[in-house]
Amino acid sequence: MESPRDEAPRLRQALCRVGALCYEKGFIVGADGNLSVRLSDDTVLITPAGAMKGFLEPHHIAHIDLDGHPVDDGPRASSETGIHLVAYRERADMRAVVHAHPPHAVALSIAEIDMQMPVIPEIVVTIGGTPTTPYATPGTDELPESIRAVVRCSDTLIMKNHGAVCLGSNLMDAFKKLDMIEHTAKILWLAHTVRGGIEPLPPEAVSKLLATRSALGIRTTNTLENRCARPS
Question: Which of 43, 84, 110, 187 could be bridged to 36 by S-S, CB 3.0 to 4.6 A?
Fold first, then answer.
């Protein structure tokens, strides 16, 4: 078992690496976005305010408790810390949060194209879809409250006109989901460009896909199964 002494340095390095990956893939630019991990003592390592996430060093990372208070004299935490704290409070099973601004996914939210629509089989089987939450003002308490209900039932979401929030069992799991939703958004973008509109998979096809989850050993949260952000 990893000792607490080893855990924090390893995860500081991981935050820097995933921040660089987000920057390299164009999911963030400039000082956009923020990333965090929850430690075994339920404190949180989170990227600092105003930093370029593609060029972080381990000593740049802030360390806070679940109320957002600093636990050391390190850098000041991100101004959007509330997003992360809401996710951890609502989802005890999640250990990492990545917030980024993937351009195609954000563009679809502006165009009001539903990323919950079942179109891509791999997405249907894994996360189900990605709900869009209403616009809320960044840097205010509106923002974390706007996502609270959806993070209870979805590992991914798009904040309208703003960016994505992805929750994971670890940092790479959260990044993987971000990668998946932006790839899906690119496909939907291309399909809409070619046709001007697309049709979802028929309900029977969706049911067959969801039925494969058990045989494949997939037990992750799925928004089509739990009808996250859908009328009951």
Answer: 84
Determine the CATH number of domain 4-226: 3.40.225.10
How confident is the model at residue 151, as a pLDDT?
98
Q: Are 144 and 217 in contact (CB under 8 A)?
A: no
**Which residues are bridge partners to 44 per DSSP?**
38, 64
Q: Catalytic pick from 2, 7, 80, 142?
A: 80
Instruction: List pLDDT tens digits, range 205-224.
Output: 999 999 999 999 999 999 99
Q: Which amino acid is at 226?
A: N
* Contact predicate 151/90, CB 8 Å: yes
Extract the tokens encoding 8: 């924090």
How far is the C-alpha of 13 from the C-alpha of 58, rounded, in Å? 6
Reported confidence tier of residue 2, pLDDT bands at 50, 70, 90: low
- List pLDDT tens digits, range 132-159: 999 999 989 999 999 999 999 999 999 9
DSSP3 helix / strand / coil % (the chain, rounded to 5): 45, 15, 45
| pTM (global) more than 0.90 | yes
Tell me the C-alpha distance between 137 and 140, whole Å: 6
Cα-atom radius of gyration of the chain, to the nearest Å?
18
* pLDDT given for residue 197 in this prediction: 83
Distance from C-alpha of 161 to C-alpha of 220, rounded to nearest angstrom:
27
* Catalytic annotation present for 80: yes
Domain boundaries in the chain? 4-226
In degrees rounded to 5, what are phi and psi of residue 132? -110, 130
* CA dist 230 → 130, 165, 178, 183, 214 (Å): 11, 18, 21, 23, 23
